[in-house]
Design brief:
Elements lengths: L1 H20 L15 E5 L1 H10 L4 E4 L3 H6 L6 E2 L7 H6 L6 E5 L4 H12 L4 E5 L2 H7 L7
Length: 142
Amino acid sequence: MKKLLALLFAVLVLVAVNHATAQTDGKNATTGKPATSVKNIDATEAAKLLEENKKIVVLDVRTPDEFAAGHIAGATNINFNDPKFKERIVALDKSKPYLVHCAAGGRSAKAREILKELQFQSIYHLDGGLKAWEKAGKPVVR
């Protein structure tokens, strides 16, 4: 009985170690697709990121009226409340890095989870949304 328990314990340890190291190649262990990187950042970090990496797509998930009232330069607007939101998100290039935001962070947090579910490779979430961006004195296109 002791040998059986020792064997069972060894198998469990091996499974745990394998699971812990399964993503070392940057791929999801279950799907074999690239693993999703998600990072929540503040406005200062977001501005620095946009300055350093011109390939980042700013994804503004507010309504078109909110977007027209002011947005981050170069942003793409896809309304989170649109019934076809997920359909429009699916059409985006999953290999590009995205900075997703809304007005205060609620809708974009939900959008971030959809991007993650759809296995977008690199997602940055602007904590506090455009309100935090403006409060930090960052530029807005009007």
